[in-house]
Amino acid sequence: xxxxxxSHPRLVVSLLPLLLLAASATxxxxxxxxxxxxxxxxxxxxxxxxxxVFHPAMATYDPFNRAFLKTxxxxxxxxxxxxEVNKARIKELEEKLQGLDTRMNELRAQFDAETRxxxxxxxxxxxxxxxxAAHLETHRHNIRMNSLSVRxxxxxxxxxIQASQLQEAINKELGASLPSRYTSPEETQQRxxxxxxxxxxxxxQVAANRGVAAVLDSGLSRLAFPPESNxxxxxxxxxxxxxxxxxxxxxxLENDPPxxxxxxxxxxxxxxxxxxxxxxxxxxxxxxxxxxxxxxxGIDLTAEVMKAILDQYKIEARIQGIILEAIHAxx
Length: 331
Description:
Signal peptide: 1-29
Number of helices: 11
Keywords: Coiled coil, Signal
Radius of gyration: 24 Å
Protein name: OmpH family outer membrane protein
Distance between the termini: 36 Å
Organism: Candidatus Ozemobacter sibiricus
Strand order of the largest sheet: 4-1-5
Order of helices and strands: EHEEHHHEHHHHHEHH
Helix content: 40-55%
Coiled coil: 83-117
Structural class: mainly alpha
């Protein structure tokens, strides 16, 4: 099975600071000119996990069986549970995967701290330098930042390969007993990869419309797949999100506003539950998602991209509002 974490382009990019210094030929008595001010690039952020978990194609994903329904037929109301599998083997693999997750989170924190420290030292040193020395120091700084980035990327890639192999082994153990109406582990990863690619494309589209130069993922910094995310979610239905999108108010309630309000309150509660358990729901796809560089700040485009996705699938406006309210209420 191909490793999905390496087969798709990154949604996010990390930016290394570039300083443009103005230099001009002046007489010996004239003071060196101040560096030219350059407008910083506009940076946007999205909560990637939110966009993925609320993508309409996730309506047929069963987090208990970690697979999609092969056809979007009538959704069962009771979550079908996995048949007996090799629990000891799965536990062993999951413990190894958890160790890799911890190490990747440590690497991210270390990289973030080192780049911030290097940038702070550079910012403090630069103002006191003459033009020539400033050029030299800028060159050294860029080399340093690139070195940190290359080291971080290579270490993360090695861990991601191991994590992908472990997740593949887990999926095979789980998929061996799935009924035929579910996608195989390979099909599940392929279907999620298609969802991921569409989120990337629409994020780029929204960013371009807003004049945003780069988009960074802010979601994993707050979530980071805690150990408990590998447990079954506490959901009343395996297709909680599918029920949010598929169910309409029962016939005959048109003239009963309180009943209509109650119906949509229930839908909102379902959406909020699905959102709260997004780490558990998306846990099997960690290798594909662990490439994100985590930052804070920037222009948050999550709601705009989420609406663009829902618009593309012609989701009813009131249901869109419920989903966006669920995201807002949980943050």
